[in-house]
Write a structure and sequence with these properties.
By secondary structure, the protein is α/β, with parallel strands linked by helices. It has helices at about 5-15, 55-60, 75-80, 80-90, 110-115, 135-145, 155-170, 175-195, 225-230, 250-260, 290-300, 310, 330-340, 350-360; strands spanning about 20, 25-30, 35-40, 45, 70, 95-100, 120-125, 150, 205-210, 220, 235, 250, 260-265, 315-320, 370-375. The strands form 4 sheets. The protein has a 5-stranded parallel β-sheet with strand order 6-5-4-7-8. The chain has a 5-stranded mixed β-sheet with strand order 11-9-13-14-15, sandwiched between helices. The protein has a 3-stranded antiparallel β-sheet with strand order 1-2-3, with helices on one face. The longest helix is centred in the middle third of the chain and has 22 residues, at about 175-195. It is globular.
């Protein structure tokens, strides 16, 4: 999809009203196109991905953990640094039942039903929990009288984030909070979109995801997940037509022949790093700027990557991997736009956008860095 088609779709989604009332209940149309009837506001939810918790916190900052009866373990396992921040602020998070490790196969319908939630919140194309395509799980929960609402911050995030936030605001009785966040989100996304209308040139970009997870080069993303961020930020994703799903692998020969102008690594390393993180880029909660930059410089010294023109010319960057599944990505899009078009966005401050996001919409403080470059200190 071209960038301006994406803008139109974004605005259409922002203005949509997927709610009708019937018989004292509400019927919502979720992002999978399913009509779901439930009673609002929901006071007890289960999360098909634990990393949805910080998104709930946008709407309920006093104690979002109190809303959660059970969740998948991906938050604790894959983003332990942010989980630790939440545990410090809300120690009771340790007592929330875990209904699976990661992935639909590990999801326990019996445990989910046992906590008797008002609603289950699943992802559209979730990689770390049950999603819209897991029909048997949906059927079991439906038979138990548990409505399932599907949201999406991952597969098509720039279109589905407004729809998903409105849905969550409705089912949690936090519509005013959802509207306040979307005004912030829309304003900051539109700063990028409006300026790019006058800039037809696009640098060629390659994003290597989950750097350090495996030896082979190179895992990447096409038109989904953070591949969408590249397009919105005014870049040309060189693998957009090569990766049919959310992510895949391209070979070294392709990269060498295509020679991107900009290289971006996604960081799955946490701070402080352990031996298992030695090849990973370190970003996120608690990560110092120096450690982050050092980890990126180390990562781009690998064979093949070190030969890319983007690296040798100093246009290599890293971004926190977990932006792919949170509305917090608004700040990441601004950071990428500044990397791609430094003159056009010279006065834009993505760090300030991230700081405002935390100050206004999170119950825990901002600490650590969430993106870096080779020249960072």
């Amino acid at each position: 999809m071209k960038r301006f088609g994406l803008v139109a779709a974004f605005l259409l989604a922002l203005c949509s009203a997927p709610v009708t009332k019937a018989d004292g209940m509400v019927t919502v149309t979720d992002v999978a196109g399913r009509e779901v009837q439930l009673r609002v506001p929901a006071r007890k939810v289960i999360l098909g991905e634990g990393r949805f918790l910080p998104t709930l916190a946008i709407l309920e900052q006093t104690n979002p953990v109190a809303l959660v009866a059970a969740m998948m373990a991906d938050f604790r396992r894959f983003d332990p640094a942010t989980y630790a921040k939440y545990k410090t602020r809300f120690p009771e998070i340790a007592d929330v039942a875990e209904i699976g490790a990661a992935g639909a196969a590990s999801f326990s319908s019996e445990q989910a039903i046992g906590v008797q939630p008002d609603v289950a919140i699943f992802g559209l194309g979730s990689g770390h929990g049950p999603g819209a395509r897991d029909k048997e799980i949906l059927a079991r929960l439906d038979a138990a009288g548990i409505p399932v609402v599907v949201v999406d911050f991952r597969r098509d995030p720039l279109v589905n984030t407004p729809r998903s936030m409105r849905l969550l605001g409705k089912i949690l009785g936090r519509e005013n909070e959802a509207q306040a966040f979307l005004e912030f989100y829309e304003a900051n996304m539109n700063v990028v979109a409006e300026r790019l209308k006058s800039e037809p040139a696009k640098p060629r970009v390659f994003m290597e995801i989950r750097v350090g997870l495996r030896d082979q080069c190179c895992e990447t993303t096409g038109r989904h997940m953070m591949g969408r961020f590249i397009d919105w930020a005014g870049g040309d994703n060189i693998v957009a037509e090569k990766i049919p799903g959310t992510h895949g692998v391209v070979n070294a020969e392709y990269l060498i022949s295509e020679q991107p102008d900009v290289y971006i690594a996604t960081a799955i390393g946490n701070y402080p790093p352990g031996d298992a993180d030695s090849g990973r880029v370190i970003l996120g909660a608690g990560a110092p700027a120096g450690a982050a930059a050092t980890s990126l410089r180390r990562a781009v010294q690998r064979p093949i990557v070190s030969e890319l023109r983007a690296v040798t010319s100093g246009r290599a960057y890293a971004v926190w991997h977990h932006f792919y599944n949170t509305p917090m990505h608004v700040a990441a899009v601004q950071a990428m736009a500044k990397w791609f078009h430094p003159n056009l966005f010279a006065d834009i401050d993505p760090e300030a956008t991230l700081a405002e996001y935390y100050a206004r919409f999170q119950p825990v403080p901002l600490d650590g860095v969430y993106w870096t470059g080779m020249d960072a200190e």
